[in-house]
UniProtKB/TrEMBL annotation:
Secretion signal, residue range per the UniProt entry: 1-19
Keywords per UniProt: Signal
Annotated source species: Pristionchus fissidentatus
Keyword Signal: yes
Origin organism lineage: Eukaryota, Metazoa, Ecdysozoa, Nematoda, Chromadorea
Protein name listed in UniProt: CULT domain-containing protein
Domain CULT: 28-153
Superkingdom to which the source organism belongs: Eukaryota
Length: 166
């Protein structure tokens, strides 16, 4: 049961990156858009730390995300905005720009801006090899901004049914 008003109320109070950590078995858990609750990706799509492309981020850190040990890259764009980015194979997002190799964080990759398909909130970027001409490859991945998503299980755990057990 997901109640959007409660999700919006509690999502703003759960800003710590650790609030995303849920130990679980794979295949059961989702990261959802903090703005509207739309499913963005699942634990089975999160790239493990040994599957990620090697880069030189501002810094990175390892964490368990929905039970998957992964590396989060902290990256700064040319405008000085800093992002904590989670890499995934698949994401339920809408691409809003043509791929661009300009100011890419990942050498040899072009990026397209991705947004939530329901509310249009900026979710991150889709990275594809430069020159792939829109053809999907095994080297494509999504960079999801951590503070734009939240664990559906975490949100569900915060909802209490009147008269129910705490």
């Amino acid at each position: 049961l997901r109640l959007l008003p409660l999700l919006l109320l509690f999502a703003s109070s759960a800003s710590s990156a650790n609030s995303f950590t849920v130990e679980s078995s794979l295949g059961e858990h989702e990261l959802i858009c903090r703005a509207c609750g739309q499913t963005i990706t699942k634990d089975t799509s999160i790239l493990r730390k040994d599957e990620q492309q090697k880069i030189s981020p501002d810094y990175d850190y390892e964490m368990a995300m929905l039970g998957v040990n992964t590396t989060v890259h902290v990256l700064t764009n040319p405008a000085g905005q800093r992002f904590h980015v989670l890499s995934t194979r698949h994401a339920n997002v809408k691409l809003t720009t043509e791929p661009s190799p300009d100011a890419t964080w990942y050498p040899g990759k072009a990026w397209s801006i991705s947004v939530c398909p329901h509310c249009g909130a900026h979710m991150g970027w889709y990275f594809t090899p430069i020159g792939s001409n829109g053809q999907e490859t095994k080297d494509d991945f999504h960079g999801i901004i951590l503070d734009r998503v939240i664990s559906a299980e975490f949100c569900d755990s915060m909802i209490r049914i009147p008269g129910g057990k705490p």
